[in-house]
Amino acid sequence: MRAAGSVVRGEAELELRKDLARHLRAGHPWVFRKAVDRAPKGLPPGAIVDVTEEGRFVARGYYDPHSAISVRILTREPAEAIDAAYWRRRVARAVALRRELVHGTTGYRLVHGESDGLPGVVADRYDRFAVLKLYSAGLTPHRGAIVEALRAEAEGLAGVYGRDEIPRDDLDDAEAGAPQGRVLWGAEPPERIAYDEHGMQVLVDVRRGQKTGHFLDQRENRRRVRALAAGRPEVLNLFGYTGGFSVAAALGGARHVVTVDVDRDAIALARENFRANGLDPADHAFASEDAFELLARYKREGRRFDLVVCDPPAFAKSQKAVDAALAGYASLNRAALAVVAPGGLLVTASCSARVSAEQFTDAVKEAAYKAKVELQLVEETRQPADHPVALQFREGRYLKCLVLRRVG
Length: 408
Description:
The chain is an alpha/beta fold and 408 residues long. Helices cover 27% and strands 27% of the residues. The chain has ten helices and 19 strands.
């Protein structure tokens, strides 16, 4: 912050259309393109701009001419400059929350974008390496300051690795499948980073893996599945990726776990994760197959499981896709329920931010009705403490997970 009475101005002013400032003052971090009266021509990505209403300061943020979100808000304090000290203050605040609330793991989210006051910035920590993923071209000019803040505030880091944040349409298929990203500071990460998750060893490929390499938001749900798996002979993990839920179930006492994912490389790493935890992959099964096709085959064969985990990718990438996503969740869970044994459990999740918890629950309820299955809701969870939600940013409430028992 600057001294009292000092004047700070952005590189340009963007005037809001009438009556659109209220949600920004209330704390929402986005200014959509259609909300801006007009933007100066030639304003580069990352320019720090003041958002105004009738000439009066409302908020300050960074500009992105390539996104439907023209400005992501960084501060509502007119005297607060967006400089290296600003980025360090915000990162320090985020790191302090994790130090206070996250325990029992060396893998967790360091910075969670909008909900940490750093819109578009995601940083995950895997043991001694941080993986930084930026979700706006407007952050590119500020990447160096963000990296320096991570280096200074996150104790014990050996390196910061950056994943390409802006999709590129000019890559051919071979290039698109190649490792994306580069070392931003410090050491090159190993081919497999191992981190500890409540006593479970997890191997992560930060170059080719999805997002930053792993799905840390399901950490506490994996821990719950480990407890639920005790005494359950047969477990099915759909959309299993690198086997996090599968290893948790096996460590919890499940005799036989089937891991399913269309990605062959993910399935190969799932086998590695079993071995890393002293589990013989030969005692379990792995399938590089479409989950819907596998469920249809298991239904025909009369195959049943005592615990089924269903954690698909986001079905709704846009608001227009919500109706189709809800139909998809209903169809998927109906198929999954067909292979849950009476008395068995279904652990089903949605990571679609545009699908509310109520809508997701209704979709599962519809699935149960059509499958003629009676369900009991045993537990309902959301994202863990290292994925906080700003109350003014409902889009941050994305993860929903239901633990359901099939009564009959």
